[in-house]
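User: Predict structure, ligand flavin-adenine dinucleotide.
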Amino acid sequence: MSRRREPRVIEADVCVIGAGAGGAVTAAELAEGGASVVVLEQGPRHDADRFSARPLDMLARLYRDGGQTTTLGTPPILLPLGRGLGGTTLVNSGTCFRTPPAVLERWQREFGLEALTDDALDPCFARVEAALSISEVTPELAGRNAAVARRGAEALGWSHGFLRRNARGCVGSGVCAFGCPTSAKQHVGITYVPRAEAAGAQVISGADVRHVLVERGVARGVEARLASGGRLEVRAPTVIVACGTIHTPLLLARSGLGRASGELGRNLALHPATGAFALMDEVVDMAKGVPQSFYVDEFASEGIMFEGVAGPPSYVAMSLPLSGTRHAAAMASYRNLAMFGLMVSDRSRGSVRALAGRPVIRYELVEEDVVRFRRGLRRMEELFRAAGAREVYLGLPGGVSPERAPARDLKLMAFHPLGTARADARAEHGVVDGDLQLHGAQGVYVADGSVVPSSLGVNPQLTIMALATRLAYGLLGRAVPRTHEEAHVLSD
Ligand SMILES: Cc1cc2nc3c(=O)[nH]c(=O)nc-3n(C[C@H](O)[C@H](O)[C@H](O)COP(=O)(O)OP(=O)(O)OC[C@H]3O[C@@H](n4cnc5c(N)ncnc54)[C@H](O)[C@@H]3O)c2cc1C
Ligand code: SF4
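Assistant: Predicted complex:
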């Protein structure tokens, strides 16, 4: 008779689950602050020397399920997620926005998150910005795809600018979403994770956390399955769940936690997005330059944001909304193609729950958001025409104008899932409180996109990292130093 092997046991002050934007930041800050930290990450440790820049190859290696996570609803939305040390920051575009002050004010009003003011978060933002070398892209590095959008925006008098990004020594190789081959992109897998390890944290990849352990309402640790097949138990009085917006509610639910308000797994916002192409007379060579380097925020108050997107020929061949000879002709003119993205700050809300251990994500686009896409697509066409486009490809079926496009005809992707364990000061309305502690479970915290209680209208990684920084310093009982140097001065 075979006996079940006893799990390996590790004791720590803090166990962090997930090594993405939220998890890596809390782990590094806590370890540097003197806590003994164990980080458990389901995915592997990736080595940039093996990054080939070939989209199909890298999708399979860096993304969960090869990047094929999809929502159920109308229209279905492709929702790619990263997996491994660095989480989704490893494959993201590097764009960094602080949380807009108007969004923070809304959180204070609607969710009782009164401590999350712009002033209070300022040192958290500043600290992450310094740690990730965040700076504005130069026009030269932005490349000619951005120049096309800039020309259009200037001709129309629309508000625009170059994006701020977490990159150092970027050479504009254009493949941020497929693993930066030069490690210029300062994702958390090469910044905060090594800092955590240098400060003594134990970082274990290939560790799939199955349960968070809570006894009499107090955190006791976690149980994980290791890639080797063994079992691991981490005993810790503080557990930080940072599995991302799709997987955090699944882990909490199977641990029997966070369900009292009925909000766990609900309130899923996505920032759904689409792209459009233009055939230009000039050579664009969109593969050269930073793919996401420029934005047009003229319509941000309506919930419509334009941001750059671009890719090598194999990526464009997959995304170009044409078929047959028209697709072949456009691809033959690849060097003259320009591309741009459109993102909607959504009012629609979806949900995530588990079926046979896997996430089922439901999300229906409400009419208000369909209208935003209609307006956004028409303006995208205007932008390209004002830039001198010969032809514009909006991704709608032949004969369907943007004004008449039904939800089912929109070709959408989403990159910013948020809100499924939302923060709300009131236990009956949220899953965590304003300090990100689970309502009803002392010592269990959540630090990832799932706590963000509403759409942001801008890319979320800096918001998630700033909240994670605030959480870490809250646990350490110290004020947040704006920079690394200041941290050392304060602790000397
Ligand atoms: C292609 C793409 C481009 C993007 N571009 C931008 C951008 O330019 N700017 C921006 O701000 N945002 C961007 N984003 C979004 C941004 O990267 C995410 O919002 C952010 O990384 C989310 O952080 P997180 O901590 O919530 O989760 P993640 O970073 O996804 O980390 C979660 C981690 O938890 C792990 N995990 C899950 N379950 C378990 C478990 N049971 N046990 C152990 N580990 C587990 C996962 O494997 C993963 O590594 C982009 C996203 C994509 C897909
Ligand atoms: S554009 Fe810059 S950050 Fe993106 S993959 Fe290339 S070198 Fe890395």
